[in-house]
Amino acid sequence: MRRLLLGLVIVGVFIAGFWIARSIFLPKEHVVTQEEATVLLEKIRTVAKLVTIEGYFSELYNHKDYWRYDWWIFRKKALLRVKAKVSVGYNLEGLDIKADTALKTITIKNIPKEPEIISIDHSIDYYDISEGSFNTFSPEDYNKLNKKARDLIEQKARESDLIKQARDQGIQILDLIRFIGESAGWKVQMESVANKPAVKN
């Protein structure tokens, strides 16, 4: 009886060892992943923009809303970090450059007076999402959060000295253009126009 029990134990240990070795050393089954992407090109247009300064921002944005009462079953909250690169410069689409070889004069018209925010490239990391039983986040809510986060970055950029730095840099570039032209024996005339700052993507 003792020999039979010993034999069963040995067989059990052998089977367990075989199963463990098989699960460790045999290759795992491959997971088949199918992905599909559709890229639509909607519009192509030429742009002429001069970026003179870039600013990098990182902000924490805390969102909370609730239905009538601030109880957990009616409340939803989101804590997210927004990281963004803001490019500030000049829109040169209306720039008009003419050269008179006889008089050796270069005339540059429609130079924007003020820089503008050219683009805001941002990304969002969601740190904490909590939802109530009767108040949950919808895809539209996430889109609104994305827009509010971008608006926050735009506000911070306008409150900073990015616009001033971009203006100073733009003046230096114009002075450099004038210097190069006059060094080559040309007269450089520049005319500015007023423009309204706007955000363009």
Give the key terms.
single chain, 201 residues, alpha+beta, three-stranded antiparallel sheet, three-stranded mixed sheet, 3 helices, 6 strands
Q: Can you describe what's shown?
A:
With 201 residues, the protein is α+β, with helices and mostly antiparallel strands. It has one domain (46-193). Helix content is 33%, strand content 35%. It has three helices and six strands, in the order H-E-E-E-E-E-H-H-E. A hairpin with an 8-residue loop joins strand 1 and strand 2. The longest helix has 24 residues, at 2-25.
Query: What percentage of the residues does DSSP assign to strands (E)?
Result: 25-35%
* Neighbour order of strands in the largest sheet: 1-2-5
Structural class: alpha+beta
How is the main sheet built? 3 strands, antiparallel
Unreliable parts:
195-201
- One letter per element, helices H and strands E, the order comes to HEEEEEHHE
How many DSSP E strands?
A: 6
Give the overall silhouette. Answer: elongated
Computed CA radius of gyration, to the nearest angstrom? 32 Å
Structure, briefly:
The chain has 201 residues and is an alpha+beta fold.
